[in-house]
Write a structure and sequence with these properties.
The chain is an alpha/beta fold. The chain has four domains: 12-125, Tetrapyrrole methylase, N-terminal domain (Cobalt-precorrin-4 Transmethylase, domain 1); 129-256, Tetrapyrrole methylase, C-terminal domain (Methyltransferase, Cobalt-precorrin-4 Transmethylase, Domain 2); 263-292 and 427-508, Rossmann fold (3-Layer(aba) Sandwich); 296-426, Rossmann fold (3-Layer(aba) Sandwich). It is 33% helix and 21% strand.
Length: 510
């Protein structure tokens, strides 16, 4: 690309290391760059779940490259990020691992510099260190290695000769780690042995390192190539050579968690899916995030606004979902700048998840069922709490919510106004990655947290894999599953996320 004479713009490109795969290994600076982005340009090895940090309306552009399958060439990617930055946009270029460790980030930075646009390099955690660590293999260790050598197993294919000096690599002390070398395993290990390396040297391969689908293959320099063929072991993988591999038997922490090796589908909205995913991942599960619904404004936002504005005139506000709480207070603080404007109204919530969202507003919850966290349980709580005759109630709810609260409280003599705060619509765009994984890889369990997640999933007409278990967060969700002619295999004891996760754990770990 020729040097640009264009004048600088307010645009900037962040070359961000997205980490090795585990969403928790994204740096704070990397997360801030995603949140600030007008455009996200991301790679094959970037966990799509990181995209949830983006603000609404952020443009997403997949430019993934893997062996023999490139959506864009490197030159085209360079041209794209320069063009977008010149347009004055905040561009976050997400690259797996670290952007400059065999990631061609330095080439992209050079193109941006030549074009005269602003850019920053944001380092990321590399799989060269994180991958072995998640397999219980430290790359350095006082008893085994005080030196680390990292090299690529996939050099520039246009080069006539390798620039790697295998004689020096074979004789180097300490640990050797190489990336992108699975397809050349026989050649690489052969070169090591030809140049004097001991064939009995311990070796490990870690595939999809730090993901719930991580796989580790243990062998030696002499037999690893054959083991790769026998196991059908494929990229992406990081290879570790050296005595540090022996430590795996003592500190293999990641693969020993109770749900490791279990693949679980989560179907909540993209905004809410993280809570379920995090709990399951902490137990070792391979989580497929497949949002089936998204939350949109109500069809009559003016009416909702009027009811929020008059909320202080009611004796009770009833919330039956976390989404209702979020929608209510988002609008409330646009109308009022003081929480005390809510007046002396008391607040009732259907369950602890909803109550937590209210408490986040620094407000107390006056009434909640003790055990039965559904509409019927909240009605019973009202019956036990007070006489509802002529009590003014504002029920903040979703458009599709069952009418139990209004019908039952009206039957008790209350005067109930319904504030439709949001509507749930099927998600048709932000789940293609999840659908692809479910269809191609299958799963052990699919979880549903509401009737709307059930109905919207089946509207997608995605076939459920044979043998998959269906998990429900409670009786209302279970009823929706049965309406589709399916059996509920796992049901939470109470309608909460922790209870659902606990039920899945008990069902899968006998």
């Amino acid at each position: 690309m020729s040097k640009s004479t264009a004048s600088p713009t307010s645009g900037i490109c962040y070359l961000v290391g997205a980490g090795p795969g585990d969403p928790g290994l994204l740096t704070i600076k990397g997360k801030e760059c995603i949140e600030a982005a007008d455009v996200l340009v991301y790679d094959y090895l970037c966990n799509p779940e990181l995209l949830r940090h983006a603000k609404p309306g952020t443009q997403r552009m997949y430019v993934g490259k893997k062996a023999k399958d490139h959506t864009l060439t490197q030159d085209q990617i360079n041209e794209l990020i320069v063009k977008l930055t010149r347009e004055g946009k905040v561009v976050t270029r997400l690259k797996g691992g670290d952007p400059v460790l065999f990631g061609r980030g330095a080439e992209e930075a050079a193109e941006l510099a030549e074009a005269g646009v602003a850019f920053e390099i944001v380092p990321g955690i590399t799989s060269a260190i994180a991958g072995p660590a998640y397999a219980g293999i430290p790359v350095t260790h006082r008893d085994h290695a005080s030196q680390l050598t990292i090299f690529t197993g996939h050099e520039d294919p246009t080069k006539e000769e390798t620039s790697l000096d295998y004689a020096k690599l074979a004789k180097a002390d300490g640990t050797k780690v190489f990336l992108m070398g699975v397809e050349r395993m026989e050649e690489i290990t052969g070169k090591f042995i030809e140049n004097g390396a001991d064939p009995a040297t311990p070796m490990a391969l870690v595939r999809w390192a730090t993901h719930g689908r991580q796989q580790t293959l243990i062998g030696t320099l002499g037999d690893m190539a054959e083991k790769v063929k026998a196991a059908g072991f494929k990229a992406p993988a990081v290879a570790v050579v050296g005595d540090v591999v022996k430590e795996r038997k003592n500190i293999n922490w990641f693969e020993n968690r109770p749900l490791f090796g279990k693949r679980i589908v989560v179907t909540r909205t993209r905004q809410q899916i993280g809570q379920v995913s995090k709990l399951l991942r902490n137990l070792g599960a391979d989580v497929i995030e497949l949002p089936t619904i998204r939350i949109e404004e109500p069809q009559n936002p003016m009416l909702f606004g009027e009811l929020v504005q008059d909320c202080h005139t009611y004796e009770w506000i009833v919330f039956t979902s976390p989404n209702a709480v979020d929608a209510f207070f988002t609008l409330f603080y646009k109308l009022y700048n003081d929480a005390r404007s809510i007046g002396g109204v008391r607040i009732a919530c259907v369950g602890p998840g909803t109550a937590e969202r209210v408490k986040a507003q620094h407000l107390a919850v006056d009434l909640m069922p003790e055990k039965n966290f559904v509409a019927e349980g909240l009605v019973q709580a009202f019956k036990d709490f007070q006489n509802m005759e002529n009590v003014n109630v504002l029920w903040v709810r979703g458009e599709e919510t069952r009418e139990v609260i209004a019908n039952e409280l009206t039957g008790l003599g209350a005067i109930v106004d319904e504030a439709i705060a949001y509507r749930t619509v099927p998600e048709k765009e932000d789940n293609l990655e999840g659908i692809s994984r479910l269809v191609s890889e299958g799963a052990d369990v699919i979880t549903f947290t509401s009737a709307s997640t059930v109905d919207s999933f089946f509207a997608l007409q995605v076939p459920l894999p044979t043998g998959i278990q269906i998990a429900s967060m409670g009786p209302v969700t279970s009823e929706a599953i049965r309406r589709h002619g399916l059996k509920v295999d796992i049901e939470a004891r109470s309608s909460t996320i922790p209870s659902l996760v606990d039920a899945v754990l008990k069902a899968l770990v006998q």
